[in-house]
Design brief:
alpha+beta, Double Stranded RNA Binding Domain, Ribosomal Protein S5, domain 2, 4-stranded antiparallel β-sheet, 4-stranded mixed β-sheet, 5 helices, Small ribosomal subunit protein uS5
Length: 178
């Protein structure tokens, strides 16, 4: 990332891990980093990078998150229009509209993604027991991708969905998981 991009986006490191591959002479160690990049104006991305040292892994992850950047749908009040579920491998995340003035009610990686996307009021719940930060962040991104936006005025609204339909499908999905 050059200096102009550094001013444009805020970066947050989710996770750094030392990983190893086994070769004939022993173990070769490298580092894996998960990074969230966002401008707090509706654009956010998550990336994972690997390198021989921590700084190269972080820079590769930042480049990857720039490639994976999405436009986060947001209402005028800085929240989501309706509840939505996102999945990534074993991680399942429920995102919903927040009450005005309450702030971001979420934990861990979901909170980081929502904060860097620019949401002011949002509620979130990680529905599985997964503690994998990168999968939880990617599940949040997948949930944000599911929010449909009407093309007429570029403001997120419920397109062909009523809130009752979304809540019923959410309840069905939760019952089928247990």
């Amino acid at each position: 990332m050059d200096k102009r991009e550094a001013q444009e986006f805020e970066q947050s490191v989710l996770d750094i891990a030392r990983v190893a591959r086994v070769v004939a002479g022993g173990r070769r160690f490298s580092f894996r980093a998960a990074v969230v990049l966002g401008d707090k104006k509706g654009r956010v991305g998550v990336g994972v990078g690997k390198g021989s040292d921590v700084s190269s892994a972080i820079s590769k992850a930042a480049r990857q998150s720039k490639k994976n950047m999405i436009k986060a749908p947001m209402t005028d009040k800085g929240t989501l229009p309706y509840e939505v579920i996102g999945k990534q491998t074993s991680s399942v995340v429920l995102l919903g509209p927040g009450v005005r003035g309450r702030g971001i009610i979420a934990g861990g990686a979901v909170r980081t993604v929502c904060n860097l996307a620019g949401y002011k009021d949002i509620t979130a719940k990680i529905l599985t027991r997964s503690t994998n930060k990168s999968n939880n962040a990617l599940a949040t991104i997948n949930a944000l991708k599911k929010v449909e936006v009407k093309k007429s005025d570029n403001k997120p609204q419920i397109a062909n969905n009523s809130i009752k339909k979304v809540k019923k499908s959410t309840a069905k999905n939760l019952k089928s998981k247990t």
